[in-house]
Amino acid sequence: MKVLAIEGSPRQDGNSSLLLRWVTESISDMGGKVTRYCVRDLHIEPCIGCGECDATGVCVFEDDVAPILDVIADSDHLVISTPVYFYHVPSQLKAFVDRLQPLWAMEALLKKPWRRKRGGLLILATGATKGERLFEGILLTMRCVSSLLGMTMMEPILVKGVDAPGVIEGMNHIKEMAQEKAKELACF
Fold this sequence. Notes:
This protein is of the alpha/beta class. The protein has a single domain, classed as Rossmann fold (3-Layer(aba) Sandwich), CATH 3.40.50.360. It has helices at residues 15-29, 52-56, 65-74, 91-98, 101-109, 136-149, 172-187; strands spanning 2-7, 33-38, 77-83, 120-126, 152-153, 157-159. Strands 1, 2, 3, 4, 5 and 6 form a six-stranded parallel beta sheet that branches. Helix 1 links the parallel strand 1 (2-7) and strand 2 (33-38). Helix 1 packs across helix 7 (172-187). The N and C termini lie close together (10 Å). The model has no long low-confidence stretch (mean pLDDT 95).
């Protein structure tokens, strides 16, 4: 099993990062191969809507995104972790999501399938507040990502009321949930 893990937090060792670590460690313990990227460590130019990828299927920017797209194509599953920033993903992760546009252009406009259809997309999200609609923006965007990638969106792990770095560390029931989701990926 090959899994691409995208850590969307700009904060190192934040709660969503710890949640991702629990999932990826479990995957590795089961013999899976995990490739992990942290958006805070990447150079990602924001999409400028130039339309160049509509004609070519390739983005005009030469940054850290293209190699990740290759890993997506070769992965069985994708796991994305993110904190909630103003009821959505942080800007660094949103820039990455926007840069998936060439994949859409390849399929929809150029009629060039870029990968086989399979796999699961697991979303891990943490938020400081306990708002009823806290994760709606994230889930709406990730449904679009799962559709674009031809992946089935799995039931996410959504954790409210965690703000200070590391506060999730003592939540054993969340850690167990993360380990169970890793097992679900293995059987997907």
